[in-house]
Automatic annotation (TrEMBL), chain A:
Protein name according to UniProt: MlaE family lipid ABC transporter permease subunit
UniProt similarity note: Belongs to the MlaE permease family.
Location (main, coarse): membrane
Gene3D superfamilies documented for this protein: STAS domain (3.30.750.24)
InterPro entries recorded: ABC_MlaE_roteobac, MlaB-like_STAS, Permease_MalE, STAS_dom, STAS_dom_sf
Keyword Cell inner membrane: yes
Transmembrane spans: 172-191, 270-296, 316-339, 351-377
Domain STAS: 35-129
Alphabetical UniProt keywords: Cell inner membrane, Cell membrane, Membrane, Transmembrane, Transmembrane helix
Signal peptide, first to last residue: none
Domain of life of the organism encoding this protein: Bacteria
Subcellular location: Cell inner membrane
Membrane topology of this protein: Multi-pass membrane protein
From TrEMBL, chain B:
Residue span, ABC transporter domain: 6-242
Entry keyword S-adenosyl-L-methionine: no
PROSITE patterns reported in the protein's UniProt record: ABC_TRANSPORTER_1, ABC_TRANSPORTER_2
InterPro entries cross-referenced by the UniProt entry: AAA+_ATPase, ABC_transporter-like_ATP-bd, ABC_transporter-like_CS, P-loop_NTPase
UniProt protein name: ATP-binding cassette domain-containing protein
Organism: Neiella holothuriorum
UniProt keywords, alphabetically: ATP-binding, Nucleotide-binding, Transport
GO MF assignments: ATP binding
Length: 379, 258
């Protein structure tokens, strides 16, 4: 059989009450679909008809493109109150039409969702923010209880897990923290040197690097690295456990999700982040020292002496204290997003992204609040 | 006279404003093999989540040995939950632990046993489901059917009073499904446990079920409760006849002689 392109031919009876629609040629999906608009144009005089007979005697090969046109046609006829007669079409076509109509149409909430007004949307957003806040407070409560039970020795978790998380958060993050911190120290020294050289005060580069790394950058850079590295991993781990019903299984085993999943991670982070911060500060100072000795001709001893003379120890303590807060922020963001994860692969991806984004935002916000408070207190 | 073990009173289940099922009333007796059945999407798994205390009833209550899981303190609740053994649809084994460690987990957490004793028990539980050689495999290294059996081994680790199964034979070949049915019967008889199964495998329902509830997605409530064989023989509701005969009896025939 030769290929013939599809065609619709409309002919009407003399009194215009009945029409005949002949289907010719091959109806192939490769030629695209006939959409409702085109069909309407072809059947422009339809309103005056009472009956439309579809003639399929010269129909060639057909596939879903024909079915789609026929369904469109049927809807159109219903709209215009025209009786549709399909009997001469091939058996297969009729049976497929029937099959597609045989399921009861159920009104699902999804298809009939009303469009919300601006106020409704604002209201819904406020509601969901309040719910989130509620959840965070709830989580904090559970975490506090879990920590109390941990101190009392009643918490149920695998000590093996704590070891693994300590290993991962600590030694596993060593290299990247070292590299980034060294470079931050170098950058601080460079930027400082360019400015301070104008006043012949290059020696103060040591103070700048010491203060900058010790009080601010050490804790913050480490926290941001760990949010991206470990916080994301926590959200992904717990999220995929949620997808796999593993979290349900734990709960129904009588284990608390907060104790079993969150507590080991909190413990690991609370121990490792301050240690990493100390390491980061040391690396930053080393970076500053490299710049000072190679570019500014300030010897290592002089650099150290200047730094210890001008940067008091409590600045480093402030950096360390902040790292403890950051550790909590990172773990909470990771674990909350993981535990709240939906039950699909996309949800895990979303949970991971949100965990990192929220952790980084919260780190910066916490840092600013602490800085403002300390300034007010005069520290 | 059998004793009631789990009672469901006027239970309404909902996700937010969307009601899944309402006005459920039935009793699960001690030693029953209780089947929760119904067409796809009618809320069978949701009902199971209510029975095991994962979802909170929108209305009504679920009583386990006379106590509601939602009106007791955390400690008592965990103690109650410990008497349940649950196997989830896909197993829900902790993917970071080996099969042996998975089965050992409840034993480590809730019993004062020594590691060597736990190891013995783990091997015994795995042997019951035919997986002893796989003790040191990770869940990702074994087949889906094996994962289900391993999950069963974990569920029976603490010799539970009630064993829940969510679609135990879904995705298993007919022979494995049959073996699992036999295993469930065997466990009921030997442990004396009550068994609750969510399933729509007719073969299993008739082979092992001796009590059931039928949920209907259209009317959103239970249509019948009782022994599935009795339901097939004497219940005249068309939905139930259609379901229990794989759609062969379309219209109710007034009196059905078996």
């Amino acid at each position: 059989m030769s290929e013939q392109s599809r065609k619709l031919v409309v002919s009407t009876t003399a009194d215009q009450t009945e029409a005949r629609l002949s289907l010719l040629g091959d109806w192939r999906i490769d030629d695209g679909l006939l959409n409702g608009e085109q069909l309407r144009q072809q059947l422009a005089p339809a309103p005056s008809w009472q009956r439309l007979v579809v003639d399929g005697d010269q129909l060639g090969r057909w596939d879903s493109s024909l079915m789609s046109m026929l369904r469109e046609l049927r809807n159109l006829c219903q709209e215009l109150n025209v009786e549709l007669e399909l009997a001469s079409l091939p058996q297969g076509v009729l049976r497929l039409m029937q099959l597609a109509d045989s399921y009861p149409t159920r009104n699902t909430d999804k298809s009939t969702k009303p469009k919300l007004s601006l106020f409704e949307r604002i209201g819904k957003n406020v509601q969901s923010s309040l719910r989130n806040l509620d959840y965070i407070l709830d989580f904090l409560g559970h975490l506090t209880m879990a920590l109390v039970r941990l101190v009392k020795g009643q918490a149920r978790y695998r000590s093996e897990d704590v070891r693994l998380f300590l290993q991962d958060a600590g030694p596993g993050s060593f290299k990247i923290v070292a590299l980034i911190s060294l470079l931050v120290g170098v950058i601080l020294a460079f930027v400082g040197a360019v400015q301070l050289r104008q006043f012949g005060a290059e020696i103060y580069v040591a103070s700048l690097v010491g203060l900058g790394m010790g009080r601010e950058m050490g804790a913050m850079m480490t926290a941001i690295i760990m949010a991206g590295r470990t916080g994301a991993a926590y959200a992904a781990q717990i999220g995929s456990m949620q997808v796999n019903e593993e979290v349900d299984a734990l709960k129904t085993m009588g284990l608390s999700d907060v104790e079993f999943l969150v507590l080991p991670r909190v413990t690991a982070m609370l121990i490792m982040l301050p240690l990493l911060t100390i390491f980061s500060i040391a690396m930053g100072i080393l970076g500053g020292a490299l710049v000072s000795s190679l570019m500014l001709d300030i010897g290592w001893l002089l650099y150290i002496k200047q730094m210890s003379d001008t940067v008091a120890l409590y600045h480093y303590a402030i950096g360390l204290a902040k790292s403890i807060l950051f550790a909590l922020v990172i773990v909470m963001s990771g674990c909350i997003h993981g535990l709240n994860c939906g039950r699909s692969a996309t949800a895990v991806g979303k949970a991971t992204t949100l965990a990192v984004v929220h952790a980084i935002v919260a780190i910066i916000v916490v840092d600013s609040v602490v800085t403002i408070l300390l300034t007010v207190l005069g520290l | 006279m059998s004793q009631s073990h789990i009672e469901v009173n006027n239970l309404t289940m909902a996700y937010g404003p969307m009601v899944v099922q309402r006005d459920l009333n039935f009793t699960i007796n001690r030693g029953d093999i209780f089947v929760i059945m119904g067409g796809s999407g009618c809320g069978k798994s949701t009902l199971m989540k209510h029975l095991i205390g994962l979802n909170r009833p929108a209305q009504g209550e679920v009583l386990f040995a006379g106590k509601s899981l939602w009106h007791i303190d955390e400690q008592e609740r965990r103690n109650l939950l410990r008497r349940f053994g649950i196997t989830y649809q896909a197993g829900a084994l902790l993917s970071s632990l080996t099969l042996g460690e998975n089965v050992a987990l409840p034993l480590q957490q809730f019993t004062p046993l020594k590691p060597s004793e736990i190891d013995d028990l783990v091997r015994y539980k795995l042997a019951l489901v035919g997986l002893e050689p796989y003790q040191h495999f990770m869940p990702s290294e074994i087949s889906g059917g094996m994962r289900k059996r391993a999950a069963l081994a974990r569920a029976i680790a603490l010799d539970p009073e009630v064993l829940f199964f969510d679609e135990p034979s879904a995705g298993l070949d007919p022979i494995s499904a049959r073996l699992l049915d036999d295993l469930i019967l065997e466990l009921r008889d030997s442990l004396g446990a009550t068994i609750v199964i969510v399933t729509h495998e007719l073969a299993s329902i008739f082979a092992i079920g001796d009590n059931s509830v039928f949920l209907d997605p259209e009317t959103k409530t239970q249509l019948a409760t009782g022994d599935p064989k009795q339901l097939l023989a004497s219940c005249e509701l068309p939905q139930i006849q259609r379901f229990l005969t794989r759609g062969e009896r379309q219209a109710p025939t007034g009196s059905i002689t078996s």
